[in-house]
Specification:
The structure is a homodimer. Chain A is built from eight helices and five strands; from the N terminus they run αβαβααβαβααβα. Chain A has one domain: 3-Layer(aba) Sandwich (Rossmann fold). By secondary structure, chain A is an alpha/beta fold.
Chain lengths: ~180, ~180
């Protein structure tokens, strides 16, 4: 990888992190954000929780609402990426069709990263305590427990975050974006 | 106005057109968009109808829904303007408090244009046939008929579109943005 080969990043691209809750999506995207900012690139994060506070607070976790959430974030990401921003989206986004809709709207400026940490590791990490609440029956419709997750069939990159350090995961995305 | 004095535009700004239905908001913003594009500036339009198709299709026309619509569009406009885009928002946006919320989030990059065409002229123009439908009792809750419109108290610019040609209206916004 040549350090100067950053045309894709300068033209703008949406980097879409998908994976189970607690798979590492947001942590990796934060590491990547730091690196992109240091490199002087325009970068914006559309994290699931932040977006739900501003753009989609009316939405719940039914399939319909999850898809609408993905489409709204995708709409905003497309606008930003079209203007030269590297947009880091980190959402569970469990349904393939909704992700592919967003991809189609991007006309090539879409880079899907599948963070493939397996369910049992995610459940151990349980960053937000959601898996524990699901086990206790306090949460239903949780992706990876009693709600489906459809992995991408052909993501631009798969990141097996459970087999790597955080630095290695960030590095792999960084390298793939430059290739 | 110096032609080179376009720092505000190059840094990014949200130009927010507010006014009654059929006051001329969208037409003026389209004229301005053309002029900004020709000048080589990054520009994006967030028109009420387009946005409702993608970002806010769940929303109706109650006060609560109108405010939510304004806040979502404002959130997206702020993101884009922060990255150097001139964002042209054209929404009735009838409530002052919601507009001022959006203004506050912009930290200075907000330029409010009040298109002050009076109600009787708007009703004659009736671009979408809404006033006729309201008179026929087929539409209720229409701004300017049976729903309130709160004009800005201190907009960056007032455009009395009914007293000007379209070119004069566009020119006045263009000039004000450069001053």
């Amino acid at each position: 990888m040549a350090r100067s080969d950053r045309g894709r990043l300068e033209r703008g691209v949406t980097v879409w992190f998908t994976g189970l809750p607690s798979s590492g999506k947001t942590t990796i995207s934060q590491g990547l954000r730091h690196r992109l900012s240091v490199a002087g690139l325009a970068v914006e994060s559309l994290d699931g929780d932040v977006v739900r506070a501003h753009l989609t607070r009316d939405l719940g976790y039914s399939r319909e609402d999850r898809d609408e959430n993905v489409l709204r974030v995708g709409f905003v990401a497309e606008l930003l990426s079209r203007h030269g921003v590297v947009v880091l989206c980190s959402l569970v986004s469990p349904y393939r069709a909704a992700r592919d809709d967003v991809r189609a709207r991007h006309q090539g400026r879409f880079f899907e990263v599948y963070v493939s940490t397996p369910p049992e590791v995610c459940a151990q990490r349980d960053v937000k305590g959601l898996y524990a609440r699901a086990r206790a029956g306090q949460v239903t419709g949780m992706t990876g427990v009693d709600d489906p997750y459809e992995p991408p069939l052909a993501p631009e990159l798969e990141v097996p975050a459970h087999l790597q350090t955080l630095e290695e995961s960030v590095e792999s995305v960084w390298n793939a974006l430059h290739s």
